[in-house]
Design a protein that fits this description.
mainly alpha
């Protein structure tokens, strides 16, 4: 397994919907058919990337946001899968 971090320069620390969609589309096209996961860093990230590794941790807000986004993703996948299944 390979892991990498992609830093994307942006005006104010955020991406437009168009920029976000281009990154996700390119990721999908590059790894289509492979087992791959794309995880975005939470906007509330302020507990990581310290030189002192003991300070690196996930905040409660990050964990809550991750759980919320995961539930939304699972719901979307179920809806998409059911739609694909119903159409075919």
């Amino acid at each position: 397994m390979a892991r990498f971090i992609l830093d994307v320069a942006s005006d104010n620390g955020t991406l437009t919907d168009k920029q976000y969609n281009e990154i996700v589309d390119n990721f999908y096209k590059s790894f289509k058919g492979e087992i791959a996961t794309l995880v975005l860093i939470d906007k509330t990230n302020n507990c990581q990337f310290h030189e002192d590794l003991n300070k690196n941790r996930l905040s409660k807000t990050q964990i809550k946001n991750y759980e919320k986004e995961l539930k939304e993703l699972v719901a979307w996948l179920k809806e998409k899968f059911m739609w694909t299944w119903m159409v075919s």
